[in-house]
């Protein structure tokens, strides 16, 4: 199995998925003209995507545990291919609605097969799930530019659909040359989390993480739907500034993905990330909802995107899967089903609240954020457990990898120093220099009890560095 090549294909699917999420909204006017229907009818067709997700997530998640991940990645790609090609040429509204439902099913199938595959690749591939958000954002960023260019050049709107279809065809060939990991295999972290929880704690963690599946999606939907209108009507910001709050949210989101990916690779615990990010998003949202200062709102919008939409939803899924490592597909389906429920219910609730005022609808997001933080806190408490020998050894392994990398760099520098000493005819041993190194170790050590042991380690390092320089000098003498 070539993990790198398989990962590239899976990420490319989510670039196309990002296009699929907004391609109907970006082509609403062109589709309305093609169907000879008002925009309200086009909006009705778009709602079919949410119906498809709601119908398919739980079913496909369960089936992926039984039949494997590759089947459902291919099902998602094929469904999206039919959607893109069909939607470009269809004229019948009922058929178009069916294709929109198929796009929702495609989304569900890709999630059921992809998130689980990254977990099953082993190592720290759970962090790779976070990057899926970045590729989705890239597709969502580039498509509007492409559509705008087509409109300016009076090019057929359907080419945007056909381009996505072409990428899927090429990627389908590449992906089906790759071997997928065995389904439902468990890494040691997942086994530890799954085995050491009591039934009560696992049930509480399930409630917390499933609830977070709802609130994390609700938080983002509500913000993107209402922030621009809220800023103009409540604080009388200009239209440009109000829309800029949404753009800054997107920039913060992409930045957050990269930072969270890096933090997970560094071994930061998912529970700590969830609590920290949700606390930060609630604070940023409070600033947006109550600060009339434009510069402060802009900074808060970036911070909210960073903390609420920077891949933290994927972190929650990773943690949920660790609780049930043998039914990853089912858990993925449950988690995103709750997210789909948010997609369906939040617009209804905020539509009702907006009758009172837009500010009421927007500030309802604070309640959603607070409930989300409570769910995350519940999950973090339920999953808290004393350190285990296996976990601590994994931490040691991670630290050892860093030490080896730094020692490689040190020995590369030792090589250069040895060459310079030869040129200047200096001895290999420099006792004063070594004494200064040991003194620096004592100064830098944060634990006095560790200091003599650290100095002994550095004496061994310097001893081996001298031996290495001597051997290099002998090799040079032989060649001469």
From TrEMBL:
Pfam families xref list: CM_2, MFS_1
Every Major facilitator superfamily (MFS) profile domain range: 6-389
Superkingdom in the source lineage: Bacteria
Keywords linked to the UniProt accession: Membrane, Transmembrane, Transmembrane helix, Transport
Transmembrane segments: 12-31, 37-59, 71-90, 96-118, 130-150, 156-175, 203-224, 244-264, 273-293, 299-321, 333-354, 366-385
One Gene Ontology term of the molecular function aspect: chorismate mutase activity
UniProt-listed GO biological process terms: chorismate metabolic process
Protein's recorded name: MFS transporter
Domain Chorismate mutase: 383-473
Main location: membrane
Stated family: Belongs to the major facilitator superfamily.
Gene3D superfamilies associated with the record: Chorismate mutase, MFS general substrate transporter like domains
GO cellular component, one term: plasma membrane
Listed InterPro entries: Chorismate_II_sf (IPR036263), CM_dom_sf (IPR036979), CM_II_prokaryot (IPR002701), MFS (IPR011701), MFS_dom (IPR020846), MFS_trans_sf (IPR036259), MFS_Transporter (IPR051788), Sugar_transporter_CS (IPR005829)
Membrane topology of the entry: Multi-pass membrane protein
Cell compartment(s), UniProt: Cell membrane
Organism of derivation: Lactiplantibacillus paraplantarum
């Amino acid at each position: 199995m070539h993990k790198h090549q398989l990962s590239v294909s899976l990420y490319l699917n989510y670039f196309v998925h990002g296009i699929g999420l907004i391609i109907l909204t970006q082509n609403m006017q062109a589709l309305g003209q093609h169907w000879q229907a008002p925009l309200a009818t086009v909006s009705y067709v778009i709602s079919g995507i949410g119906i498809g997700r709601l119908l398919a997530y739980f079913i496909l998640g369960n089936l992926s545990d039984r039949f494997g991940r590759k089947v459902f990645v291919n099902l998602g790609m094929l469904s999206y291919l039919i959607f893109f090609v069909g939607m470009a040429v269809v004229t019948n509204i009922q058929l178009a609605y069916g294709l929109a439902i198929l796009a929702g099913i495609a989304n569900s199938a890709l999630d059921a097969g992809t998130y689980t595959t990254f977990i099953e690749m082993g190592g720290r591939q759970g962090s790779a799930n976070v990057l899926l958000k970045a590729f989705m954002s890239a597709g969502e960023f580039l498509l509007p530019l492409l559509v705008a260019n087509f409109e300016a050049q009076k090019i057929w709107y359907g080419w945007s659909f056909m381009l996505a279809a072409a990428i899927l065809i090429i990627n389908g060939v590449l992906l089906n040359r790759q071997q997928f990991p065995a389904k439902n295999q468990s890494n040691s972290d997942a086994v530890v989390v799954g085995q050491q929880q009591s039934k009560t704690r696992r049930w509480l963690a399930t409630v917390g993480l499933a609830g977070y599946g709802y609130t994390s999606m609700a938080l983002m939907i509500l913000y993107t739907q209402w922030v621009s209108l809220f800023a103009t009507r409540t604080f009388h910001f200009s239209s440009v500034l109000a829309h800029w709050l949404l753009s800054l949210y997107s920039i913060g989101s992409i930045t957050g993905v990269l930072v969270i990916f890096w933090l997970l690779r560094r071994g930061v615990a998912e529970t700590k990330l969830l609590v920290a990010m949700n606390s930060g998003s609630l604070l940023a949202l409070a600033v947006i909802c109550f600060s009339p200062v434009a510069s402060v709102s802009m900074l808060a919008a970036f911070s909210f995107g960073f903390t609420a939409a920077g891949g933290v939803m994927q972190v929650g899924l990773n943690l949920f899967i660790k609780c049930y490592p043998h039914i990853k597909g089912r858990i993925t389906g449950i988690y995103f089903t709750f997210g789909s429920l948010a997609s369906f219910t939040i617009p209804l609730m905020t539509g009702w609240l907006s009758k009172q005022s837009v500010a009421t609808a927007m500030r309802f997001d604070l309640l959603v954020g607070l409930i989300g933080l409570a769910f995350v806190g519940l999950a973090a408490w339920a999953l808290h457990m004393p350190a285990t020998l296996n976990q601590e050894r994994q931490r040691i392994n991670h630290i050892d990898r860093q030490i080896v990398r730094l020692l490689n760099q040190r020995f590369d520098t030792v090589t250069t120093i040895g060459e310079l000493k030869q040129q200047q005819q200096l001895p290999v041993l420099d006792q004063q220099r070594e004494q200064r190194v040991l003194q620096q170790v004592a100064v830098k050590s944060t634990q006095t009890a560790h200091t003599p042991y650290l100095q002994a380690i550095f004496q061994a390092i310097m001893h081996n560095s001298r031996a290495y320089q001597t051997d290099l000098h002998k090799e040079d003498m032989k060649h001469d």
